[in-house]
């Protein structure tokens, strides 16, 4: 039997340049000029393989013998040590992906399906504010339900909606990691939810003004400022504040306002623009607003070159101690449609820019009910301005 363990830890430093056998395929190679390393010679499937085991003195004689024993056993089992080590190295590199990097990559891959390519940051902010400060520097493959529970427990009940969004985004990031080939726990989020338990927070709807009170409020918006005109147009059209704020003069032609698809939240799967029928009253408001136009914005802000701030309208209502909020006028309009008209459900929902029906039904039913909406929006304007008090019926 060939001798093994020929070298000694104390004698290695005195070995001259050249290769020195420790036995069983383990060699110490003194390259000179302070370069010394361990080499293992091994035969796999009839082929001689040679692999480095690290440099001395970082890898001691004892370490080298342990490594050699491990790889010899792999070779005896028919595994190529060189290929196996490379495979393990690649796997280790994949598993070192940090959550912050995987989450950012997941965000990039989803931008196309987010409003405005997610530039407002609302998709990523729950992760950025409540998860990444605690877990961003952790390899995504190491994250488990305990980590997630501890990160979100402080806001699980106090900021329930934000916590829910953060949990959802985190789940997407972990699935993205799995798609990258990382060894992640796809059940970690569900297990964290089980640990956190049911949320005590009860979601509250955005306060809305009763439709019967809207005419009185509308009459108070009479000073012709951008803020008053913006609120009037918001009430008359039932659009979201983002679409209103970002209204450009070129989007309006006659009695039609065409809102770009990127501002039409709530129409999942829709990629086309949305037409809003403008009542005579709405057109009058727009003509008044044109006197304030700046840089193409119909409703410009008081500072800079952009549109009116998203807080301006809310602050006006808050100063007046009105409980309702600007977004709530959509509810006022929808409730009026239900209480005072016989508009079909799909028409009433389209007034608010909502998609109705299944994906298949929408593929065949492509009407935006513009003519029916034109009648309804004119009657709504009559109600808002105090010119209508009767129930509206749609015929024909």
Automatic annotation (TrEMBL):
Q: Which residues cross the membrane?
A: none
> A single Gene Ontology molecular function, please?
DNA binding
Q: Which InterPro entries match?
A: DNA_brk_join_enz, Integrase-like_cat_sf, Integrase_catalytic, Integrase_DNA-bd_sf, Integrase_DNA_bind_dom, Integrase_recombinase_N, Phage_int_M, Phage_Integrase
Per its UniProt entry, which superkingdom is the organism in? Bacteria
Q: Which CDD domains match?
A: INT_P4_C
DNA-binding listed as a keyword: yes
Say if the entry is tagged with keyword Cell wall biogenesis/degradation. no
Keywords in alphabetical order: DNA integration, DNA recombination, DNA-binding
Q: Report the residue ranges that make up the Tyr recombinase domain in this protein.
A: 204-377
Point out the coiled-coil segments of this chain.
none
Q: Hey, which family's this protein in? A: Belongs to the 'phage' integrase family.
UniProt name for this protein: Integrase arm-type DNA-binding domain-containing protein
